[in-house]
Amino acid sequence: MRRKRGQPIDGWLVIDKPSGMTSTQVVGRAKRLFDAQKVGHGGTLDPLATGLLPLAFGKATKTVPYIMDGTKVYQFTLKMGEARDSDDADGAVTGYSDVRPTDDQLRAALPALTGNIMQVPPVFSALKVAGERSYDMAREGRPPELPPRPARVDRFELVKRIDDDTAVFEVESGKGVYMRALARDVALACGTVGHITVLRRLRVGPFTEADAITLDKLTPNDDNPHASPELLRPVATALADIPALALTEDEAASLLHGRALSLVDLMGRIPQVDEDSPIRAMEGGRVLGLCRLEDGLLRPIRIL
């Protein structure tokens, strides 16, 4: 059996992605710098965008879905009066408008774009249409008609007005929300057109800007040809904002063998969670895995 290339490194690294790089390029560079066997990321950022790109190494890739489901915070700059085919500054101009809404008009448009909404994704997105990527079809001059999709926007605020043409917004959202579409739609709601010129992700799940490092901090030196694994955070870091349940040594042993635990024995310790929400099973300071409450039992769904 052929050995996998690279080192078996486990953990999370939060990169402050520079503009101009794709998320895949960042993953590839980090994989080479750490000489790692397996690396993934916790949510794609557009090439134009900067900010938090969490990278999962080794066993941390098992926890990627929980990062993807976590709350995200973005800031973007909307330029009004000019539509682009990609809904950001990287695209070609497709239309103009002389209308420049007031701050009050912009704020009045935000409630309709907040909460559980239906959003038409940008045609320059990775969504598949009949087996083809939407962005490939758009680049070939065949932009598809994408149907509206459910999206959840928890907070949408006008942060500041830079000038008549530009305004800065902050958004807190769930997964699968396109900031480029929000920028396009707030402009349209105010009777004009617009696109994103600056986009930055400030938070992903438990990770904030304070956790992020730039790619140049990973540069190897003469003493070590690879980046240090000490830069990585523990696998369980990704689960920090999932409600925790403390287990005894015997309960932990049962859970690790895949056995469900009776909720009767756990009364008084069970955290308040929504139905189908995960629970982080703990033995002391050790994260055992993720569980779910089901039919009077605590069932393991992912053991770490």
Describe this structure in words.
This protein is an alpha+beta fold and 304 residues long. The protein has 6 helices and 18 strands. Strands 1, 2, 3, 4, 7, 10, 11, 12 and 13 form a 9-stranded mixed β-sheet that branches. A 5-stranded mixed β-sheet has the order 14-16-17-18-15, covered by helices on one side. A two-stranded antiparallel ribbon has the order 5-6. Strand 17 and strand 18 form a beta hairpin. The longest helix is centred in the first third of the chain and has 12 residues.
Indicate the CATH topology of the largest domain: Pseudouridine synthase
- Which strand-content bin applies to the residues? 25-35%
Question: What is the helix tally?
Answer: 6
The fourth-level CATH homologous superfamily of the largest domain is Pseudouridine synthase
Mean pLDDT: 89
The general outline is globular
Head-to-tail CA distance between termini: 25 Å
Round the Cα radius of gyration to an integer and report it. 22 Å
SSE-based structural type:
alpha+beta
CATH architecture of the largest domain: 2-Layer Sandwich
Number of strands: 18
The structural domain count equals 3
Q: Please write the string of helix (H) and strand (E) elements.
A: EHEEHEEEHEEEHEEHEEEHEEEE
Helix content: 10-25%
CATH class of the largest domain equals: Alpha Beta
Low-confidence segments: none
The profile of the biggest β sheet is: 9 strands, mixed
Structural topology:
Blueprint: E1 11-17, H1 23-34, E2 39-41, E3 50-57, H2 64-68, E4 72-80, E5 82-84, E6 93-96, H3 103-109, E7 115-119, E8 128-129, E9 132-133, H4 134-139, E10 149-161, E11 166-173, H5 179-189, E12 194-204, E13 207-208, E14 244-246, H6 249-256, E15 261-262, E16 279-283, E17 286-294, E18 297-303
Parallel strand pairs: 3-12, 14-16
Antiparallel strand pairs: 1-3, 2-3, 4-11, 4-12, 5-6, 7-10, 8-9, 10-11, 12-13, 15-18, 16-17, 17-18
